[in-house]
Amino acid sequence: MIVAVAILTVLLGAPCAAALDDADAQTARAEIVRACVGLLKLDETAAVVTRVEARLRVDPDFVDGFLLLGNALYLEKRYGEAIRAFEAGLKREPGKVALALPLGFCHFELGRVDDAERFFAALVRIQPDNPKARYGYGFVLGKRGAIEAIAELERAITIDPNYWRAHDALGDVHFDRGEFAAAEAAYCVALRGEGWRPSTWYRLGLALARQKKAGESKQALARYRELNDLVTRVDGLRTRLLAEPGDDDARARLAQAWLELGQTAKAVGLARIVLARDATNAVALGVVARAEGAADR
Amino acid sequence: MESTTSSALLLLVAGLVGDDVSPQFVEVSPAQSGLAHISVYGSLEKELILETNGPGIALADFDGDGDLDVFCGNGDPLFGKPAGVGATPCRLFRNDGRLRFVDVTAQSGVTIEGFCNGVAVLDVDGDGRRDLFVARHGGDALLRNVGELKFEDVSGTLPRAGAWGTSVAVFDADGDGDVDLYEANYLAFDVSKPPRHGQDGRNCTWFGHTVMCGPEGLSPEADRFLRNDAGTLVDATAALGFATVVPSFGLGVLAADLDADGRSDVYVANDSMANFVFWNRGERFEEDGLLAGAAVSGDGREQAGMGIDVGDVDGDGKLDVFVTNFSGEPNTLYRNDGDGFFDDVSFRSILGPPSLTRLGWGTALADFDLDGDLDVFTANGHVYPQADRAGTDTSYAQPCDLFRNEGGKFSGVAPAHSGLGASAVHRAAAFGDLDDDGDVDVVVAVLDGAVRLLRNDARSGRDDDPAWVGYRLDAGAGNPDGLGATVALGTAVRVAKSSFSFQASNDPRVTFAGSQLTAPRVLVRWPDGARESYPRGDLDAWHVLTRGQGTSEP
Predict the structure, then answer these.
(1) At B72, which helix (H) or strand (E)?
(2) Distance (Å) from the alpha carbon of B292 to chain A's nearest alpha carbon
(3) pLDDT tens digits, B200-221
(4) Is pLDDT at A5 greater than 60 in this prediction?
(5) Interchain CB distance below 8 Å, A79 and B393
(6) Beta strands across the sheet bearing B250-256
(7) Which is nearest to A225 in space by CA: A251, A250, A199?
(8) Shortest Cα distance from B497 to chain A (angstroms)?
(9) Which chain A residue lies closest to B390 (C-alpha atoms)?
(10) DSSP string, A60-71
(11) B298 in contact with A at a CB cutoff of 8 Å?
(12) Rounded mean pLDDT of B365-387?
């Protein structure tokens, strides 16, 4: 990790290695990037891993490939392998911040909080106006209980007021400091953008309870339970799809769950993958119809 | 000059480190201790969830001679005994002092077989002797202590057996003076039709590897509460309000007065589902762990809770809760904020991050280094042998971990200093002062392996050994160990409890050390709310505090 930070810090701005590639390679890469970005948005990580790994075997300097691969592995919670992918990309293009940002979170997920903090601190120094860097740094500082987290998260929000995760993390810092009214306010903002996240409803429910707002707390926790059940269902179906990528019944049910969570684009995208192979899949048809009906309304 | 100064500083630092009182565990071999027991727990491939949780352990003074004897649970080969494996009974070892144990299984009558999971020690019949309750798959066992380390199997007196009992908590739930029993149950498992990957459309994979099925996708079993009615355990699960919850995959349980109202509450760690907090309202218990902030992680995730303990880790007088969890999930420290609220401080306390690559089971909050505050021990090991494959970020065999308390935050003790570097597939861990020297030793179960005895050398006969004082509580017939009593010396608070960790029964005695030792008197709040104080007693010694023999306190 320290090596990665050092490379990033010293060589930022180094010329892009990809510039020397021939036109065919660039075309192939662009096609994979286009397809895989779409697949990642649908959490179709297995397909991304397969396609990118195949390309990297013949095109080992495909930096965006390492970025896609790392992101797919991160979503699959294979953090150690994701780190290797991101670092392989950084080795080839040391200045690519997009590769460095998720590295901090990978280290965090593996319990290496010191490494994650140092990583994000370095990124903030390099790109002080990058809201993701500010968020990452603030998130880790907040988990450690450091008051400096507030400034970092507020800075991220100033740069990008619609950075809902930053609002959420800011709520957590206030909560941990016993500032329950401020936590409530931050969670409410976060929920405006990402109202499907059960964790935010949970923390909001607790913040309300601590302020003795029993009725509102009960409502928030009821919403948490409802969404948590859906997210648990989503997680189960995603696990199944990782093992059985061809299970379109599971994919259709996943689309249905995402639709219930209000994630219409993801739901329709998954349903269309199913319908491309089986135009009669009733669950997938239902998802598309419901999504279109909602759009019409 | 600079280098000389640096060298001097280095020497000074080295000297300070050398003088530091560090908990040093030393593994005592079975040949040295006589504590020789190798568990058999299904196949080594672990294709079934029934084969994964491992046997329980109990440390208790079964013969009334003042020291802790050891009961080791066992499992079953399940589908055919491997070559060379004979009967696989549980075992009982008598403590003959100086960490020497003698296997007295044959003459004791504890030769029960099957998957022996959680163990509880309680005086069911009020004769002052400690009986044994063993939670098993397919039917629990109750062994009545008839004296001289002999037990009589009275399992037939138990109400309808639980299907798969795991951990058991012993406490006085109804305030009648004797102790009752809460049994966490895991899931429905039919040995004649075990769930396997691919069967009935089941997908049992983890990081792309086929693994044993469960608990997700299997049916959780409801826990049960057995009330002691004059020596007979009767099912009172519904009567006391424990049947109001959705059946969950129960693995860990303990009872403690979490809201300081004088009554024991119940905390249940569930696997992959929300944990329970049952508040004791007097006549009934009410579950509301979610509102308390102690049912799920701080970010609202249901975790796979295994082991559990409570203690005042930050010295504010309130009991905090610690739960060990699955790999990829941090172990969780719930700080007790009072008023029935908890806050997940796993990351702030530093206990969470190092546990993300571990799968924790047995655990204790105890003053392992005798400096006056509570440290943390966790026994670790994965459920999947496939954890050793690439890409999982974890491993099947794992070392135990020790975390030292430094003002409410913790720091991991390096294996070289803890003595806990050896990896194994650890499961239950039982905690107690086996050699009566004042520090807490550990007996750890190893899945399909030899039980490990870890001697704590915080006190090892040196001139600068830390001072301590310890107490056994005696609340009289029915509760000879004073379970549920709260003991305070100075500002430090300890609870007399045997049911904590995972599938373990532990030394119920309490110890104090550090700056609290200057207090002249020790205050006991007995389970029924009565308060008595006693002279502190000599340092570096165990004392018995008997109900009714102290000075009444308001």
Answers:
(1) strand B69-72
(2) 8
(3) 888 899 998 999 999 999 999 9
(4) no
(5) yes
(6) B250-256, B265-270, B276-280, B285-287
(7) A199
(8) 30
(9) A81
(10) TT-HHHHHHHHH
(11) yes
(12) 97
Contacts of A110 in chain B (CB under 8 A): 356-357, 393
- For tokens 């026994």, the residue is B379
Residue showing tokens 């603030």 = A138
Q: Which residue type occupies B153?
A: D
Residue B82's pLDDT band (cuts 50, 70, 90): low
Instruction: Give the separation between CA B90 and CA A159, rounded to whole angstroms.
Output: 64
Residue contact A111–B205, C-beta within 8 A: no
Task: Give the pair of three-digit tokens for residue A71.
Answer: 């992101």
Residue A67 to residues A61, A63, A98, A123, B134, Cα–Cα distance (Å):
12, 7, 8, 17, 53
Distance between A15 CA and the closest CA of chain B, angstroms? 33
Determine the Cα–Cα distance for residues A86 and B7; give it in Å rounded to an integer. 42
Interface test with A, best of B351, B393, B395 (most A CBs within 10 A): B393
Q: Which of A143, A201, A244 is opposite residue B203, by nearest beta carbon?
A: A244
* Nearest neighbour of B291 by CB, restricted to A113, A201, A221: A221
Q: Indicate the helix (H) or strand (E) that contains B253.
A: strand B250-256
How many beta carbons lie within 10 A of that of residue B82, not counting itself?
Answer: 10
pLDDT value for B328: 96
Q: Cα-atom radius of gyration of chain B, to the nearest Å?
A: 22
Q: Residue B403 — φ and ψ, nearest 5°?
A: -120, 130
Is the Cβ pair A202, B296 closer than 8 Å? Answer: yes
Considering only alpha carbons, which residue of chain A is nearest residue B393? A80
**Alpha-carbon distance values, B78 to B48, B110, B547 (Å):** 10, 20, 47
Please give the Cα distance from A244 to A247 (Å, whole number): 6
From the candidates B297, B351, B356, which should be mutated to test the interface with A, based on the most A CB atoms within 10 A?
A: B356
Beta bridge partners of B70: B59, B93
Q: Which pLDDT score is estimated for B301?
A: 96
Could you list the beta-strand ranges (E) of B116-244.
116-122, 131-136, 141-147, 150-153, 165-171, 180-185, 205-206, 209-210, 224-229, 232-235
The single-letter DSSP state of residue B52 is: T
ipTM for this prediction: 0.91
Q: Which residues from chain A sit within 8 angstroms of residue B205, using beta carbons?
A: 239-240, 242-243
Is the Cβ of B386 closer than 8 Å to some Cβ of chain A?
A: no
- Complete DSSP assignment for B493-518: EEE-----BSSEE----EEEEGGGGG
Cis peptide before B480 (omega within 30 of 0): no
Q: Chain centroid to CA B296: how far?
A: 20
Question: Looking at residue A269, what DSSP letter applies?
Answer: H
CB atoms within 10 A of CB B472: 19
Of B290, B291, B354, the CB nearest to A111: B354
Question: Exposure pattern of B243-254 as b/e (b: 16+ CB <10 Å)?
Answer: eebebbbbbbbb
Nearest to A206 by CA among B299, B272, B314, B244: B299
Q: Per CATH, which fold does A1-13+28-127 belong to?
A: 1.25.40
Domain ranges across chain A: 1-13+28-127, 246-297
Tokens 């810090």 appear where?
A9
Mean per-residue pLDDT, B182-200: 93
Neighboring chain B residues of A243 at a CB cutoff of 8 Å: 203, 205, 208
Q: 3-class SS at B417?
A: helix
Is there a contact between B466 and B456 (Cβ–Cβ < 8 Å)? no
- Per-residue pLDDT of B49-64, as tens digits, reads 999 999 999 999 999 9
Q: Please indicate whether, in this complex, the C-beta atoms of B203 and A243 are within 8 angstroms of each other.
A: yes
State the pTM of this model: 0.94
At residue A224, φ and ψ (nearest 5 deg) are -55, -50
DSSP secondary structure letters along B439-501: S-EEEEEETTSB-EEEEE-SSSS-TTPPPEEEEEEE--TT-TT-TT-EEEETTEEEE-----B
